[in-house]
Amino acid sequence: MKNLFVHHVYFWLKNPGSQEDLAQLLDGLNKLAKVETIQKHHIGVPAATNRDVIERTYAASWLALFDNAADQDSYQVDPIHLKFVEECSHLWSKVVVFDSVDAS
Amino acid sequence: MKNLFVHHVYFWLKNPGSQEDLAQLLDGLNKLAKVETIQKHHIGVPAATNRDVIERTYAASWLALFDNAADQDSYQVDPIHLKFVEECSHLWSKVVVFDSVDAS
Fold it and tell me: Stress-response A/B barrel domain spans which residues (chains A, B) (predicted)?
């Protein structure tokens, strides 16, 4: 996977125990996946792995791969993305984003 | 990308300013990528994006995709992985791992 822009977002819910809120967030992410510049995506929840170095307190993860940085810029202002934020941002208490590009 | 096990690791260096240490870590990750159960991988550094929600203090990121959780378990004890930890763990001060599986 060369020349990728890797956008990985982790969400913590305001109501961590709410399966309904989680389902609503996951539904929103499934709609978000329709943004055209996204090459591949993965909607996740914490795996069963559990070691000291593993962060597993988040509720959902959103991995989106883009061909380049410009496509990710475009995604940020895509109407589908703006609608996702509008409809779902009340669900989360914290979001952490890691954006990575090729190391070499 | 269905049925994936997504393993994303972020490394902070003991000597954050050392290009030599970063190069050594990236070299180690390139060797680590040879583990046979890894389906796809990406070796990254922070992108230029810079918003409040973006964590960009890490030095390098390691994304490895596996077909299933068992393949990731196998990777953890693969001799290539053990050698990577042996040769490179002195370089980092912090490692954070996010393991994610399909949400539905």
Answer: 5-100
